[in-house]
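If your schedule permits, I should be very grateful for your opinion on a structural question. I have a record of one protein: its chain in single-letter code and its fold written as discrete structure tokens. Would you kindly read the sequence against the tokens and tell me how you understand this chain to fold? Thank you for your consideration; the sequence and its tokens are set out here.


***
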Amino acid sequence: MEDIKPPSRVKGMKILQKGEFDTTYLVPAVKIENERIKKFLQENKKYMLKQRAVKPIIDLENGEKLILLNPSSKEYLQDLQLEYHNLELHYENFNHLDIFQAILPDHLDRVSSYSSIGHILHLNLNEDTSEYKHLIGQVLLDKIPYAKTVVNKQNVINNTYRFFEMEILAGEENFITKTKEHGCIYELDFSKVYWNPRLSTEHQRLVSELSPTDILYDVFAGIGPFAIPAAKKGCTVLANDLNPESYRWLENNVKINKTKISTYNLDGRDFIKTALKSHLIDIWKTNNKTNIHVAMNLPALAIEFLDEFVGLFSDYSTTLPVGEMPVIHVYGFGITEQDVLTSVISKLPGLQLDDLQLRTVRNVAPNKNMFLIKFKLLKSILFRSDFEEPPTKKKLCSN
């Protein structure tokens, strides 16, 4: 007996017609007296029919129960006195995976995954699925209880402010939402800021490396997925983002999570040259051994910003008391590990391959991987000067 699925006539449907899913299946069933129900269920519950919005136990007029069974269980229940029941099924009785498998041509990729950001479902559909995209959106809206808006990512990410270009496939045009991650609450406008729940594990992994007394400089902080949990942990955090909307939601999320973070709305280079530099000098002046971390999560461009650290303190003499060197956590895209390692080395003269730790974060697309490169900055890089300035122009700092 075949598995229960939508009728074959819906294959290739591009405009959702719910009535076309009406069908009748002959399913095995067994009559059980009321007094035997409890024992029967204890022994055979796993064989009962499990179908969306279908009650597998039907009350009969004579005080008996009719137990609907999974068609694939028939061979295991041959010792029972089976009968067959006409089960009417409709669109409401199939989940979204059943429907997509029934509708989409066999050569297309299955639509099996999506990202959830509060009430928003975020898809990344291939071009060959474009004819079905609005149907896909409507089905998800119908089948996912919390979904109110379904969007599809376009091919372009705004390079300046890092948010997806997207189109609404189904539901209301409401992009302001709330989501939770590792005990933190984030509010955001998904149409104007970058948020990727698939990086949740990466956010947690980096923060887990921090101790409560550490300092974190978050150069491309977004709405705070590194900065806020780090601050909750007790770290001193300076967080920056160029996107005014990200900065606004970052400040909002700092408040709702009751954390203390110094926030900035600057270009990444300006943040490094001003806020990071000034704060790091103050830390070093205490002559302590505080651990310093710099997060640079802008995979498309972050490696390009590394050269800002070259000679960052060239205007200071070596009398500046120097504490721990910053540990850089920079993310980058590349085809191979060698691609990103070479890029990092090219930006920081004096750094060697042996100084770098690399980890693959995830595969983003064919021939495109996201990597994390971690290393400790060298003092020679921070204080590098291509020419010797006159002594009178040097800033002397001491205890």
